[in-house]
Each structure stands twice: as structure tokens, then as C-alpha cells.
Amino acid sequence: MTEKMIDTFLMRTYLETVENIVGPNGLKSVLNFAHLEKYIDNFPSKNGGLTVPVKDTQELFHALKEVFGEKGTRSFSLRVGRGFARLATEGLSDMAKALQVVARLLPEGKKMRVMLEKIIEQNYKMYTVTPGTPTITIEETEDSFLFIHRDRFESEGMHSEKPVCNIYVGMVEYFIEWITGHRHEVKEIKCRAMGHPTDVFRISKQKQ
Fold it and tell me: Domains of the chain, with CATH numbers?
């Protein structure tokens, strides 16, 4: 099987986000714990393509869980997700500006849908995806969107009694708030780490 890869821009942004939260020395400690010393003072370039192994990203966030403990991991992961999304919109500024122009005159629900579709589009550009079944699909109900993810690295190989994809929750929270100007609840209601076949995220259409 071909090893799954992610874009260097994503890994660099993840590393910058963690560093912004825990500081340079904190990041070094996490990277040493994860046996990812190759990234110490050596972040990937912003435009190196799909050359970073997904397992490096998994090791990074598994290490965060071990270092910060089960109790503190969720809130920390939400911060990482939101911080990552903020840096991503800044790093992809041309795309972000174009997206905001398109969404400006749309109603709230349409803006949310446009953002979720853009996340899917970027996923296919920045991750190695398995051919066949779509990696992410959207289902819409009267009061929410269901974001169904079949290949999220946070839950890959994990076992837990609670959902573990909190980085993704924080990321989607930020992107939805960024495109609409309002906060909307994002909750993982199914998780592969709990034995479900997919990770399912419920995004409420109701403003918080």
C-alpha cells in the first residue's frame, strides 16, 4: 500500500500552531517525545507538495495527548484546530478573499455549505486520498449539516470511549465562524476511535 502523505503547508501550519500555544521549547519537548526531532528548527516549506507522511502528523498529535493528558487534551486540541484554521486562511489569503467575496451575498446556510465544500476541495489537494468512495461527504437536514469523514488521521488506529477528533472540530468551528461572522456549534457525534465506521460532525445552523 502506498504511504499516505499530506501537503508540507499543512504540516508547517500544524507545527506553527502548536508552537504559538506552547512556545518554542514546548514544541521541542513534544517533537522529542514523538521522535520527530527532524522538525526541530526545521519546519517544512510552504509549497513542497504532498511529501510529509501522514504518520508524522499522527505521531505529533498522539504525543500532544500523552504530554497534556486525557483531561487537558480536548481543550488544547480545540485551540490547535482553531489556530490552525486561522493560520491557514492567512496563508491562503488569495483563496480566502475570493471565497469571502463569493459568500458575501449568500444567506447563512448557503455560506456554511460553501465553506464545507471548500474544505472538501482542499482535502483532495492536500492529502493523499484513497480512490473510490469519497473521503468526505455532506448531508443536510433542516437544522444542521452532517460532515461525514472516512479518513481523518486523528481517529486512525485510535481506541477511545469518547470522540477524539477535537482538532478537526476546532478547525471547522473557526472556518464556519470566519465565513458567516457567527459561531455555530460543531460536535463530533460518531468517531472511528469508538468503533464507528466514519467520523461524523454535526454543524448546527443555529447561531450561538
Answer: 5-90 (no CATH), 108-207 (3.30.1380.20)
